[in-house]
């Protein structure tokens, strides 16, 4: 009897970690004006480097441009994603100043790649130890030995968003979510990267061994219904899927909504960061023959590049500033018809005050909120299909430093604290052009807009209902200045 032992080896077309490191370093050196390489962290067990590459003109400067992120290899066996990211990086840098469209994207976007997020799991696969390995190599039983039947955490179940609702609590499971959210370095580096960048879009690349292939998943459908941006995030996902031709060449990828809320990357990136995130299940198997790789990459490039184009069309953008200092502000931007108060606020970035909300063509009502500032409300703002509507916002402070151009102005306020009625009077010939009354979270309660030098407030809101005890801000405007008055209202 002859025993034949077959060992599955990975085709040389696939990159090892050393090859990824070498190529990225070479690109960063050869194309230093548009490509920058950084080690953003190290893996949980083996301390292997996790790389991020940025491609943009003025690459060492944080510019006021839309940012798009591509991530591959949450799961160690899904090595096709690494190849797509590396292929895209090469295509962008080699065609800059050659292809006009790519040149436009590089000049007007900040494009980020994390092409190999799980390097220690990747080594298990590439060395042939286990070519179906998904997880990292966390030593779950603390015995100092790598145990294939017990160790490792699934990085795509370790994000801090409904973490306990997904994956498995059993360490041997290939879906083990880890001992705590963000317990794994692989997830921490993505968290920290996304905290310092305001990504509009993200693709995460996978290639299913047991589930459906050639699918684009988007967030989400849960027990409470669909995500608040469902019509917009679905439309973009459909455009991605329709652009990627399948392996058979007789159709395109399928778009599916991801069921349930759990600690996956696409849910955390959208739910916490507000980034429209898509899980691309590439091809029909995790590891395809080497001769198929370039073709798979080329076909997926079209869907990936759509995000770079879409970041400049179909939505509302603008910058939010302090009206007196011109300082950019990080403020909450609410699209009234598409808002979930249970999610973290969608904020403009602190560097430029920039926000960008991807929408469909239509008319929207928008609110801008920031603690300590008067809220702004915009009705019937039109978003167009082929361009971005600009909505630049200046917020007025409710307290703090205000410019007082006329130091002779005197205000008489009686009584203090307020116990039912308050009189606000200008003692010189100046008149109030308006007086607005806000609560401490910036809600406009009442407005007086008839020119006068004396206003009597009965401590009621705009519906003439008595307000509750508390602190209120009275913001009066004249032709020359803004007057801000803090009042305490006490009824008993």
Topology of helices and strands:
Layout: H1 17-30, E1 35-42, E2 49-55, E3 67-72, H2 80-95, H3 100-108, E4 110-114, H4 119-126, H5 185-195, E5 199-206, E6 215-222, E7 225-226, H6 230-243, E8 254-259, H7 265-271, E9 276-281, H8 290-310, E10 315-322, E11 332-335, E12 354-358, E13 362-369, E14 376-383, E15 388-390, E16 393-395, E17 411-414, E18 422-426, E19 434-438, E20 444-448, E21 454-457, E22 470-477, E23 482-489
Parallel strand pairs: 3-4, 3-5, 5-9, 6-8, 10-15, 10-16
Antiparallel strand pairs: 1-2, 2-4, 6-7, 6-9, 10-12, 11-13, 13-14, 17-18, 18-21, 19-20, 19-22, 22-23
Helix pairs in contact: 2-8, 6-8
Explained architecture:
This protein has helices at 17-30, 80-95, 100-108, 119-126, 185-195, 230-243, 265-271, 290-310; strands at residues 35-42, 49-55, 67-72, 110-114, 199-206, 215-222, 225-226, 254-259, 276-281, 315-322, 332-335, 354-358, 362-369, 376-383, 388-390, 393-395, 411-414, 422-426, 434-438, 444-448, 454-457, 470-477, 482-489. Helix 2 packs across helix 8 and helix 6 (230-243) packs antiparallel against helix 8 (290-310). Residues 1-7 and 399-409 have low confidence and may be disordered. The protein has three domains: 17-310, Zn peptidases (Aminopeptidase, 3-Layer(aba) Sandwich); 315-395, Immunoglobulin-like; 411-489, Sandwich (Immunoglobulin-like). The strands form five sheets. Strands 1, 2, 3, 4, 5, 6, 7, 8 and 9 form a nine-stranded mixed β-sheet that branches. Strands 10, 12, 15 and 16 form a four-stranded mixed β-sheet that branches. A four-stranded antiparallel β-sheet has the order 20-19-22-23, with no helix packed on it. The protein contains eight helices and 23 strands. With 492 residues, it is an alpha/beta fold.
């Amino acid at each position: 009897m002859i025993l034949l032992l077959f060992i599955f080896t990975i085709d040389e077309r696939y990159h090892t970690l050393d090859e990824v490191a070498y190529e990225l370093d070479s690109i960063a050196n050869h194309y230093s004006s548009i490509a920058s390489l950084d080690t953003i962290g190290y893996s949980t067990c083996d301390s292997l480097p996790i790389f991020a590459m940025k491609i943009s003109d003025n690459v060492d400067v944080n510019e006021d441009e839309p940012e798009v992120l591509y991530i591959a290899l949450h799961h160690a066996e899904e090595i096709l994603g690494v190849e797509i990211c590396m292929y895209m990086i090469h295509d962008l840098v080699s065609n800059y100043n050659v292809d006009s469209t790519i040149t436009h994207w590089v000049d007007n976007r900040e494009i980020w790649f994390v092409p190999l997020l799980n390097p220690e799991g990747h080594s298990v696969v590439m060395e042939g130890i286990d070519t179906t390995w998904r997880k990292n190599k966390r030593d779950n039983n603390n015995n100092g030995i790598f145990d294939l039947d017990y160790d490792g955490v699934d990085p795509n179940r370790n994000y801090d968003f409904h973490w306990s609702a997904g994956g498995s609590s059993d360490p041997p499971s290939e879906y083990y979510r880890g001992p705590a959210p963000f317990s794994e370095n692989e997830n921490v580096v993505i968290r920290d990267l996304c905290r310092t960048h305001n990504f509009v879009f993200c693709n995460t690349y996978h290639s299913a061994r047991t589930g459906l292939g050639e699918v684009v998943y988007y967030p989400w459908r849960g027990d409470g219904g669909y995500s608040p941006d469902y019509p917009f995030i679905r439309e973009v996902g459909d455009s991605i899927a329709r652009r990627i031709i399948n392996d058979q060449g007789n159709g395109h990828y399928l778009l599916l909504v991801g069921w349930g809320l759990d600690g996956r990357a696409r849910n955390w990136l959208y739910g916490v960061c507000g980034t429209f995130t898509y899980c691309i299940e590439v091809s029909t198997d995790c590891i395809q023959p080497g001769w198929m790789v370039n073709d798979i990459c080329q076909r997926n490039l079209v869907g990936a590049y759509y995000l770079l184009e879409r970041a400049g069309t179909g939505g509302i953008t603008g910058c939010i500033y302090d009206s007196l200092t011109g300082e950019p502000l990080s403020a909450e931007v609410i699209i009234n018809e598409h808002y979930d108060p249970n999610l973290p606020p969608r904020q403009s970035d602190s560097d430029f005050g920039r926000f960008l909300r991807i929408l469909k063509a239509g008319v929207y009502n928008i609110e801008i909120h920031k603690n300590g500032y008067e809220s702004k409300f915009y009705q019937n703002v039109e978003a167009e299909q082929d361009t971005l509507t600009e909505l630049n916002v200046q917020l007025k402070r409710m307290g703090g430093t205000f410019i007082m151009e006329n130091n002779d102005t005197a205000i008489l306020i009686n009584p203090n604290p307020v116990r039912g009625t308050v009189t606000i009077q200008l003692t010189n010939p100046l008149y109030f052009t308006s007086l607005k009354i806000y609560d401490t979270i910036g809600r406009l309660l009442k407005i007086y807009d008839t020119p006068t030098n004396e206003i009597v407030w009965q401590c009621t809101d705009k519906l003439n209902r008595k307000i509750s005890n508390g602190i209120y801000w009275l913001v009066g405007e004249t032709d020359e200045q803004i007057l801000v008055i803090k009042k305490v209202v006490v009824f008993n």
